[in-house]
Amino acid sequence: MATDLILQSVTRYINLTEKESDYFISLLKPKTLRRKEYLLEEGDICKNSAFTVNGCLRGFTIDQNGYEHVLNFAPSGWWIADMYSLLSQKPGNLYIEANEISDVLLLSKANQEKLYHEVPKFERFFRIITENSLVAYQQRLMDNLSLEAEERYHNFCKRYPTLINNLPKKDIASYIGVTPEFFSRMQSKMLRRS
User: Fold this and answer.
1) Is residue 1's pLDDT more than 80?
2) Strand partners, 50
3) What's the domain of life for this entry (predicted)?
């Protein structure tokens, strides 16, 4: 059940009473996205954090040459949002799109503020997941600056083990910062070595 998964995610970091759990669940809005449907587009103001119940979302930007740069994925059990836009309530830079049919639970910024007021321990929960996200982004930036493409691919496999065989190769290539052609050659070379 959708609510079971999100409650498991939350209770990894904070303990909730039944009343607190029910209140939290009452603030969530379920949404189903079709494959390739956008949850958010560049220029939109991000009003919600999304928790993926099943399926997979990807966050990406498009540069002035029309190339996509994948920043992150949100498979089942992960949160995703344009954090800059969500926190500032200014137009964002990210697209968030469903890679496949995906069910998500949306928590609006307004409801998140209500949650902080009514159940203050949720501030701890969101602080922890925000800190974890910041650490992951910093590590990814350092990897992109200092590691070879093959090492970045191995790190992708560790971070998203359930996605390795489920994503289009062009999305993985974009995430690790190489062209799809380079990625195919690299994979062939890795297969020959093993």
Assistant:
1) no
2) 80, 106
3) Bacteria
E-only strand ranges, 102-184:
102-108
**Could you report the per-residue pLDDT of 41-55, keeping only the tens digit for each?**
999 999 999 999 999
- CA 44, distance to chain mean position in Å, is 17
The type of residue at 194 is S
Taking 90 as the threshold, does the pLDDT of residue 194 lie above it?
no
Residue in this structure with the two tokens 């099943």, named with its chain if needed: 54
Q: Is pLDDT at 2 greater than 80 in this prediction?
A: no
Q: What is the DSSP letter of 1?
A: -
Terminal CA-to-CA distance of the chain, rounded, Å? 40
- Integer Rg of the chain from CA: 18
Handedness of CA 117, 120, 122, 126 (dihedral sign): positive
Instruction: Give me 171's structure tokens.
Output: 């999305």
Can you name the residues that pair with 169 across neighbouring β-strands? none
Tokens at residue 127, please?
Answer: 């602080």
Q: Which residues contact 192 (CB under 8 A, 6 or more apart)?
A: none
